[in-house]
Amino acid sequence: MPEYELYYFDFPLRGEVARWLFVYGGIPFKDHRVSVEEWPKLKGNKKLFPYGVMPVLHVGNDRVAESHVINRFIARLAKLDHAEDPLDHARLDEVYELVRAFYDDAFKYVITVFGFIPGDKNKAFEEILVPAFEKHVPNIERNIKGNGWFSERGISHVDLFYGQLLDMLNIVAQDFLKSEPESYKFWQRVTAEPRIKEFVAKRKQ
User: Fold this and answer.
1) Which residues, other chains included, contact 45 with Cβ-Cβ below 8 Å and sequence gap of 6+?
2) What is the predicted pLDDT for the residue at 157?
3) Would you identify the CATH topology of the domain 86-192?
4) Which segments constitute the GST N-terminal domain (predicted)?
């Protein structure tokens, strides 16, 4: 097995799903957490960062870039993509894209709260997060099966992707997430998975 090394900031943002997938899958990896101060000095190193962006995953001497490509790659390694059933795999990919659309729409609110871009947090909440939630979440959650996951076969990378997105919202808008019972229960279900629970408990607050 090649050595896996993940490079991303020490924030639960675009690189965090990959961490969760490695952890849940029990796949050893080196978690390189790059500081905001270090990044300007490192981003020009094309050997480490082919496109000058993170996250990037080093697989032995090879590189895999772009967060969603990395997520799907690790899902295959961990056998969480249900690829043995092509139709189930396609349905999960469909939900993945629904979650991705929600993530992309909500992300500006999240980075406003974290202070990465200027803006009024309350205004961003009303104008970005609430409309994004109302637009995307009903379509996402209608795909939850009776077992509580997006596939009758059990937990998948898509459950971890959505769970991590909700976890991110629990950090920046906890009261709002608690006011949405189905979303809050899904977040609780994912973060109750033993390996995820342990990983989150060790996270820097």
Assistant:
1) none
2) 98
3) Glutathione S-transferase Yfyf (Class Pi); Chain A, domain 2 (1.20.1050)
4) 2-82
What tokens were used for 102? 């929600």
Do 7 and 58 form a contact (C-beta atoms < 8 A)?
Answer: yes
Tell me the C-alpha distance between 116 and 41, whole Å. 18
Class of domain 4-78: alpha beta
In CATH terms, are 4-78 and 86-192 the same topology? no
| Domain residue ranges of the chain, discontinuous segments joined by + | 4-78, 86-192
Count of residues in the chain: 205
- Using CB atoms within 10 A of its CB, is residue 89 exposed (0-12), middle (13-18) or buried (19+)? middle
Dmax of the chain from CA atoms? 49
